[in-house]
Design a protein that fits this description.
Blueprint lengths: L4 E10 L3 E11 L15 H8 L7 E6 L2 E2 L4 H5 L17 H11 L4 H16 L3 E3 L8 E6 L4 E3 L2 E3 L3 E6 L4 E3 L2 E3 L3 E6 L5 E3 L2 E3 L4 E6 L5 E3 L2 E2 L9 E3 L17 E2 L17 E4 L2 E3 L21 E5 L4 E2 L4 E7 L5 E6 L5 E3 L3 E3 L5 E10 L5 E3 L3 E5 L1 H47 L1
Parallel strand pairs: 5-8, 6-9, 7-10, 8-11, 9-12, 10-13, 11-14, 12-15, 13-16, 14-17, 15-18, 17-19, 23-30
Antiparallel strand pairs: 1-2, 1-3, 3-4, 20-21, 22-24, 24-27, 25-26, 25-28, 28-29, 28-30
Helix pairs in contact: 3-4
């Protein structure tokens, strides 16, 4: 019977210098619980990554249920699962790219892959329930790195960070952030709107703001956390706006002890975070959202052009239809960053080869619709060939016509000369 795991003389050397594994041998029987113990730097993670086909060994062999981890990597990945201690996504690439990597690892076919990833991304930023039973080291409910996104109507609980935001012109609204270590973490962000959210039972910070400025934060209900003295951390000398002016007001802070002598719902004194961050008009009671009608339907987008075919020019019309009024439209060519457009446009200077296109639209309620991904190809050289062929064909036709005319004229002259000779002889 094959071992569940079999390792023979396994060696791994990094950069030709650091020997992480030096001839490891071990066998694990099926159904056996095996504990691999050792101090930091002993090579435990390296061994696990080799067994899960993430790394190739420098020397030696490793098998999982008789399958070689190097030569049968695809089959091994279908048999194993890996739960690392650290965050299980790559933070230096986008959420789409993380999902794409795992979809490829598990053999999801291309068309099905795009559908599943699109559904996951849409549910992540709108109407999602994200919860962990404990606080993983760097778990994040919603992580947005970009601009012109809407994060709305999510229930986010028991994460290290409920919302992490890096970018500009995003809207974070109508979310419930409950029992997270941190509420909203802003870094390198500006001109975002954070409003009408409920944040309660945080352990460390309700807002963690780094290198972020001119964000508008108002009409949020913020209830006292387990450590209110650490409730808000703002990097020094970064200015943000914490209210919507008077009489609209700022935020509700459960730790605010001010009075409201004129009963206008606004506190008589300011809620001071630091000298650059002040809620001038704190609310004395929680902000009510009951009067607001919420539209949860995302716009539907139909791309009419380009189509799934080959084009022979480098400029192609971009034509699409949107099911409702919109506040913003963008498109992404070849999975590059979104480009804001105002309507139908023209794709220009396209390179030869295959391309893909997605159109996005945001309605006035912040719902974002995503079109199906369209695949098309450009072959401008074929257009040149066709032009040359057409030119050659036209030239050939002209030559043939000229030749026919010439032959007819020659035949007519010959016929006229023959008639003249015949008349002379008759006389």
């Amino acid at each position: 019977m094959d071992f569940a795991v079999q390792v023979n003389g396994l060696v791994k050397v990094y950069d030709g210098k650091v020997k992480a594994l030096d001839g490891v041998d071990l066998n694990v029987n099926p159904g056996e619980a095996f504990a691999l113990l050792g101090p930091n730097g002993a090579g435990k993670t390296t061994l696990i990554r080799i067994l899960t086909t993430q790394l190739k060994p420098t020397a030696g062999e490793a098998y999982v249920f008789g399958l070689n981890v190097v030569h049968d990597g695809g089959k091994v990945r279908k048999l194993v699962s890996y739960v690392p201690q650290e965050m299980s996504v790559w933070t230096d690439i986008s959420g789409y790219e993380n999902l794409l990597i795992y979809a490829k690892i598990f053999g999801v076919q291309h068309l099905e892959r795009e559908k599943i990833i699109g559904e996951v991304l849409e549910n992540t930023i709108h109407g999602a329930f994200v919860s962990e039973d404990f606080y993983p080291k760097e778990s994040v409910g919603v992580d947005i790195n970009g601009s012109n996104n809407s994060i709305s109507e999510n229930l986010l609980t028991c994460n290290a960070h409920a919302i992490v935001l890096c970018g500009s012109s995003n809207v974070v609204s109508r979310n419930k952030l409950i029992s997270n270590l941190n509420g909203v973490w802003l870094y390198s962000s500006n001109n975002n709107v954070i409003s009408e959210n409920e944040i309660k039972n945080y352990t460390w910070q309700v807002f963690l703001i780094r290198e972020s400025y001119e964000n508008r934060i108002f009409h949020n209900n913020i209830f006292q956390g387990q450590a209110p003295q650490l409730g808000i951390v703002v990097a020094i000398e970064y200015y943000n706006i914490w209210d919507d002016g008077y009489p609209s007001g700022g935020n509700y802070w459960s730790t605010y002890n001010g009075t409201d002598t004129n009963s206008d719902g606004i506190g008589d004194t300011q809620y001071i975070i630091d000298k650059d961050n002040i809620d001038r008009y704190p609310l004395v009671s929680p902000y009510s959202q009951n009067f607001i009608t919420i539209d949860k339907m995302s716009p539907t987008i139909l791309i009419l052009s380009p189509e799934d075919k080959e084009y022979y020019e480098k400029s192609i019309p971009l034509i699409f239809k949107i099911s409702e009024q919109f506040s913003w439209i963008g498109c992404s060519l070849d999975r590059q960053s979104n480009i804001t457009i105002t309507g139908n446009a023209t794709l220009t200077e396209l390179s030869d080869g295959q391309h893909n296109l997605v159109v996005y639209a945001k309605d006035e309620y912040g719902n974002i619709g995503v079109s199906q991904m369209i695949w098309f190809s450009v072959n401008s050289q074929e257009n040149i060939k066709r032009f040359l062929l057409a030119t050659a064909t036209i030239a050939a036709v002209i030559i043939i016509i000229a030749f026919v005319i010439y032959k007819r004229k020659s035949a007519r002259k010959h016929s006229d000369g023959f008639q003249s000779n015949s008349s002379f002889s008759h006389r």
